[in-house]
Design a protein that fits this description.
- The structure is a single chain.
- The protein is an alpha/beta fold.
- Helix content is 29%, strand content 21%.
- It is built from six helices and twelve strands.
- The strands form four sheets. A six-stranded parallel β-sheet has the order 5-6-4-8-11-12, sandwiched between helices. A two-stranded antiparallel sheet has the order 1-7. A two-stranded antiparallel sheet has the order 2-3.
- A hairpin with a 3-residue loop joins β9 and β10.
- The radius of gyration is 19 Å and the shape is globular.
- The termini are far apart.
- The relative contact order is 0.12.
Length: 274
Amino acid sequence: MDERIVEIAGDEGSSPGRYMRYVFDDDTGTYLRPADTEQMLAFRERGVKMAYMQAQAGAGFDADASEAAWPGIWRELTRKRQEPTPEYFAILDTGLLSRHPLLRGLIVDGTNLTTEPDGEDTNGHGTMVALILADGLTRRPRLLNVKVADGNGRATPRDLVKGIEWVRDFARKTSSPVCVNISLGCYSRRWGLFACDGTCDLCEAAVAAARDVRMLTVAAGNEPNKTTCPAMAGLRGRAGNIFAVAQLGWDRSGVGTVAMPVGMQWVPCEETDE
């Protein structure tokens, strides 16, 4: 396997955080939270509401009544409960800040596959992903910190494969439902010329893991008109529980064809300025 570099934070030589925004505390040297939290929450609520309305639509659907009831429904969906989720959430990323006040006590296991001394996040990306995840759940998540990228946001495909295999072994040993988030990827090629068709080593590792985990959510990548691996495995239909997005371009970053489990239908929604 080629030891290409996987960029999470930006191009080589750029400062970490080029493609993401978060609040950094100079006094403690820690990343506190993603920036623009209110906008992020509003965007998430809009997406959840759209999905909810689509799921409810059908014979006898009363759009006005559902619209009026939505504030109460949203409060219930986002009400934090004390009991933990039955699932484990594995985050393959730059590590997690275990001392972060919103993550303290949520990290139950993990592994460090980088040359850095521990699984702590010195970049901020992994912690940001975990905060977004935790904010979107109604119960306390049980997090698996699978550190595959260093403080510069770089990893090798081999480390990504090892991280995926570690999660698969965890799911097998514990017989527990595991959801996997991979907000990074590698632009793999066949014969050095053509884009991966979903069969590179990284895609194969994801397909194998899909047999033992509940689902994998994989990012498209940071380059226009290109899709990273193992997202390509989902787009090629290699496994029904790999959710992935095809990259279309900077103007519609992360929007495109969605790989859905068999039997589900993706209904594209019109974008508005609301």
